[in-house]
Amino acid sequence: MSSSPSPRKYSLAMRAVHWARAAIIIALLAMGILMTTVPDDFPGKYSVLYPNHKQFGILVLALVVVQLLLRWRGGVPEPVALKPWEQTVFSVTHKLFYVLMAAVPVAGYCMSSTYPKSDGLPFFFTSLPEVLAKDEAASAIFAAAHAVLAYALLALVALHMAGVVKHRLFDRGPAGRVLDRML
Question: How far is the C-alpha of 172 from the C-alpha of 178, rounded, in Å?
Fold first, then answer.
């Protein structure tokens, strides 16, 4: 069985990475909002939420690299015929997705690495080195960047989902079957 994608569908590897990453990103966005709004004495805030947020954020970054390698290897099907404005939105949205899916975890890593009270960057069965100097002011800048970029990513996820619904429910012809390429 060939692993190359048909002209109409993304490869199985691309689809698996897409859905895994999407689920993790949605969970991380929800977890980030929860972590930053609950009181400090919330059970598991620092022992469960923060460490898992960090390690799954790094996993998203790794999945972005995997997906870019899969795309580079030719894992992208033929484009669907869309209206010119839709093609522009599609192209800009997907480029911004890759930028934000890399920038959000990098800003989070930098925030954690520079935070004076950080106890390291867990990554499942190991930990990542904190290569930046501890610096409260730098950490505050990275924290602000991480938050702004995460909310931009949340807005992009909402736009992406609205586009999927629009194509699925309102479009006819190939544009109405855009979601099928990722199923």
Answer: 10
Q: What is the mean pLDDT of the chain?
A: 89
Q: Do 111 and 150 touch, CB atoms closer than 8 A?
A: no
Tens of pLDDT, residues 73-106: 876 787 777 788 988 998 899 999 999 999 999 9
Cα distance between residue 16 and residue 10, in whole Å? 10
Global pTM value: 0.88
From the number of C-beta atoms within 10 Å of its C-beta (0-12, 13-18, 19+), residue 65 rates as exposed
List the end-to-end C-alpha distance of the chain, in Å, as a whole number.
18
Task: Extract the tokens encoding 81.
Answer: 């015929």
